[in-house]
Amino acid sequence: MESQQKTFYHRLFITILRVAIGWHFLYEGLTKILQEKWTASGFLLNTSGFCSGFYHWLAGSPVLMQITDIMNMYGLIFIGIALFIGLYSRMAAISGALLLTLYYFAYPPFGNPMMNTGDGHLFIVDKLFIEATALLFLFFYNERGYSIDTLIEIFRNRKKTPTAEPDGNLSRREALKNLATIPVLGAMGWGAVHNFKTYGVDVMSGATIQIKRTALNELKGELPKGKIGKHELSRLIAGGNLIGGWSHARDLIYTDTLFKAYNTEQKVYETLILAEQAGINTINIGFPSNALMAKYKKITGSKIKVISQVAPDMAKNDYFVNINKAIDYGVDIVQVQGNWCDWLVRDKKLEVIQKMLERIREQGYTAGLAAHSVESLIACQEVGIIPDYYMKTMHHDQYWSAHPREFRFPFEVDGKGSLDHNRFHNNMFCLFPERTVEFVSKTTVPVMGFKVLAAGAIEPKDGFKWAYDNGADFICVGMFDFQVVSNVNTALDCLKTTSRTRPWHG
Asked: What is the pTM of this model?
């Protein structure tokens, strides 16, 4: 009697464990099928572990990606059903463990916690590890619980050693016990379908989250490159404002915080990995983002080129402090920050700009000079201050929030926003587009256009084309992860159809 009770509890425990894992697999598979146009592409493309090359290879081929998606969805479903009802449960257990192992090494829970997409970052042991271990236990343990496998085994044994008077009631009870999970599966399946109809697909299940972003396999080609100094840079460069939390959103006071909330360190890493895979090999950052970029490059082994904006410390008359710090962070190119160039020209301190550029070059680095007001660059040029490249705001003024031309004044971009609707209020960054175009057309050093979309007021296909057509050799654009590939495609389209007259420099 005691032995029978012990056997009952063993079987009950194994059954509950097997059914629970089976339902998890089945539910994950169903949510992926019901999720319209679900693909594992994003999950694979953002992998960061030592096996990431394998996952990126899968995601890089449309054929392999289609096969992977089908095997993922239906593999989860078949494994889930087999475990739930206990049919070929040992084969399902080992198959499930292997599938979970593939998930585990896509984002291994060791190394940098920011690169892990799971619910928290536990060292080595996480949910996938535990569930795979449980499946291995089910594979090696002799007891299969109440299952169709057990029922089949009972009938086989009875055929080998038939009894003179088989107990019909006992046979029926055994059959009912071992088939009990089937109606449970039906009930849970009905409940899940009802839930789908009422609330839609559970998009938080596993890797089912979908962002409307163009996949890497939809890239239209490879971004062309140009040279600035010794560096070969993609014609489309990632901007650092969205990463740093500078939104320039007119009078919307919450957007800086919103940007920072979305662009967590992990999300920044995902965005940068995606950008590099899409062919963007350079980022231009504000000085506060240097530490983040240094950490990203160290952790991922990234080769992305970093352009760091630097400012002088005028209070201490130390013009070089941030240049030295940027170099210590391991940046590739150093650029005098745009607003500081404007302020120094406005305050007639051009010698500070000259000294900063000289210092950058003395250290063996390419020296850039940025500005919002074209008057700043004109003034520097007139006294012979010529950088290795210019970075200039370049956008037209044909958008709704641009204030009237007669109320625009040099250097106001770097001043305080006015409450007068006819004046500047964080709404324009290239105040006199025609003067900028004239300056750019005559300069013989490379030009990097930035704020080409006027901080989100101009459509990319319009802003990109305008900047390229009017002489920009490179454009710098802040972008969220879901915009990266579409922006690259837009840049490719604009570069193919540009009507520029200025020769390419760089």
From this structure: 0.72
